[in-house]
Amino acid sequence: MAVGQEEQLVVFQLNDQQYALPINETQEIIRMAEVTRLPNTDYYIEGIINLRGNILPVISLNRRLGLPETEQSEDTRIIVVENKGNKVGMIVDSVLEVGRYTDSEVEPPNMIGDNVDFLKGVVKKGDQLWLLVNLDTVL
Fold it and tell me: Which branch of life, at top level (predicted)?
């Protein structure tokens, strides 16, 4: 990113915390769909969905990040991302906005904890903190 250049993020909610993904890693955002469960898969894999004729694996981002699971609601969304050529759907509690940020608003993820490798950094937006998800380690 060029210095001072603004980038866009998709900001979403998991439990009571706001997370964010760079918009260029995000393919689309869809409403919660009927998920077909698969046997013998990782604990965080919800199953698969049929997205316009394409079979797409779907993960629970809450489960993947070790967060409490929330009841699905009208606001539940699937964020479709592409990482290393693979498309994956991630279930989130809700999508809030497309936000903008600059390099100067990002802090490195030097927090103490096990899940620090799931984060690329923390965006400070006024009094809000957006945790930047690192798709390389999440998927």
Answer: Bacteria
